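Dear colleagues,

For the upcoming journal club I promised to circulate an example of a predicted protein-ligand complex. I picked one with zinc ion because it came up in last month's discussion. The inputs are reproduced below in full, followed by the predicted structure.
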Amino acid sequence: MTTKLNYYFFLNTVCSPLFCAARRPVDDMLPVNDLGAMNIQCPFCHAFHWIEEQVSSSSMHNPEFESCCQRGKVKLPTLRVPPVELYNLFVDDSPQARDFRKNIVHYNAAMAFTSLGVNIDRSFLTPGPPVFCIHGELKHLSGSLLPERNVNPSYAQLYIYDSHAAYEFRVSRNGNLSLQTLLLLQQVMRDYNLYTDIYQHAYEILRIYNAPDYTIRLCVVPGHDPRWYNLPSADEVGVILPGENQFQGDYRDIILHLRPQYYPNSRDGRNHLQLQRINEGHSAYCPLHYVLLFPFGESGWYQGLKSPSTSKSITLLQHTAYRIHPWAWEFSSILRGRRLFQAYLVDMFASIDQEWLRFIRTQQLRLWVTMLNGLEDAISMSDDHVDLNQLGERVILPSSYIGGPCDMHQRYLDAMAIARYFKKIDIFFDDDRESQLARNHM
Ligand SMILES: [Zn+2]
């Protein structure tokens, strides 16, 4: 069984040229589905909803909702209004602002501290609405503070250089973007983003020590006091780590090196650049990449985050759901992010899914897999050539894991039941990869 992640979204089905339902002539008899205005407020957090979103146990006169705050259990600080220069780009109707919103993903990549490691699935790209579709695992990557020799700096490295040099490098890498907007955004990031100071501070420390085993560790939790919603300071998130063995820290910490790290590849015998993967349980996971959505470096979700009102842990799913609901008093850069908003949603979905997979992996005994694990299968084969040391750990995905083989098999059976009931079906959409996956595990 494979644990490789596959992310497919329903948009890909309706946008696929194989799915021709949208091309049918409009039938005047089709009823119009109107959700009405999104003006119903949650009685607990006052987020706006459509009435259709209410939980079934509440009445039409006193509707209640769960998707925003879990009926008052989740509460997060209001996002700050962006700096006025960035705010204008989000709301103005000028050519510069329109260009910014159209290319916001590229502007964000030009300013981000970390890169996005992902395979974008372009097979579903169509002339219709923009789709951000990925295949495989999604991760954020961080390199050293200084670039490789004879390589131009990028991402966080650009915050170490002086403004003029950094601007020149950004222009050389983003020739299709507005130079005026790049300069404006760079100034906003340098003036307001918390991590600009932190990275420059880390660079100064590492440059003074200038030893290969000295690193800076960005801690996972920004402070431990009731001011948890405040921005972390440089002293709170940075720890000098003189050598890997003296202080192990948390496995989710971000470790900053002064110079590039390499690892030997046994296949080609060469040394390859080593990039650190940012754990999605780190509070800087989102603000280091989505810098235009969190221009001040506001803390994101981290494992152990608790609601100050209930002292209950907040999951990443709850945190994301809360962030993408609108309030009358909040200017949300996230909801105005257009394609960057799409990327953020896919990123959060992937992170939630990876957290769920990690939980499944640690709960295998509870899933009754001891009778099914690969080791016993191999022994039962009585094959003398089986090298038990080469066997990996088999992970069983329960049917509650959306997109897993058990879930796909159940969906396949549901589809067959529907086809059997209605008999005359118009179209049967078969995704070869998923159905093959399901058939292999039936
Ligand atoms: Zn609410």
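Two points we might discuss: The CA atoms of residues 293 and 337 lie 7 Å apart. The longest strand covers residues 134-142.

See you all on Thursday,
B. R.
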